Amino acid sequence: TYAYTIGTGALPGGCATCGVQVGVWSEWSEWTPCSMLMGAMSQSRFRTCSTVSCPGGSFSESKPCTMVHDPQPVPQPHWGEWGAWSGCSASCGGGTMQRTRACVDVCTGCQCVGSATEIQSCNTQPCCVWSEWSSWSECSVTCGTGGVTYRTRHCSTCLDGCVGPTSEQMPCSSDRPCPAPQIDLPPANPPDVCISCYLPKPPCLTCSIYSTWSNRWVRDAKKLR
């Protein structure tokens, strides 16, 4: 039995025909994190041998190190929630409305990426348009005062209809005065009254004339005739 030291590359003495091949070292591993080893901070790395024996060197090596804490990530600013939409700037014909959001600035001097305002169109339907007013109509009276004249307009076709009246009126009068009303008065001398029972054309009875005044006094101090 022959003894040899692994890792030194030494072969058993007098074993030239043993057929043992010399190994090849692998690449070194990454350094391990710093850790406390035998009272000191150190980190290590390792390698392997392809056979039982590799020429020179060792399977591991160490070096002192200093524990470095990973830096904390710097907080980044971010946008808050969008606010409610504003009212539309126009009731028809195309307007705009907008909403805003605030940047949550968690670091001094930091700015959010993007816009703080969002705008979109609204009320794009065409506006209602009134036609021109018509001419004033003829006065409702042909003489005197107390008449009315009017004019009209119409609304173009649209969604909600035009705002306002479709007609206007105002008082008017005629330049021609009205004739005075005719009043029927009884005649100064009433016609003779005919009293008859004959038909169809009875003779007329003519009332006699008054007699002369009598000399008789009555209680109311009036004369009879």
UniProtKB/TrEMBL annotation:
- Identification of the protein by name: Thrombospondin type 1 domain protein
SUPFAM superfamilies with a match to the protein in the record: TSP-1 type 1 repeat
Residue ranges of the TM segments: none
What the entry lists under Pfam families is as follows:
TSP_1
Record bears the keyword Disulfide bond: yes
Q: Keyword annotations for this protein?
A: Disulfide bond, Repeat
Query: Which PANTHER family does the annotation name?
Result: PROPERDIN (PTHR22906)
Q: Which InterPro entries match?
A: Compl_asym_regulator, TSP1_rpt, TSP1_rpt_sf
Q: Which organism is it from?
A: Ancylostoma ceylanicum
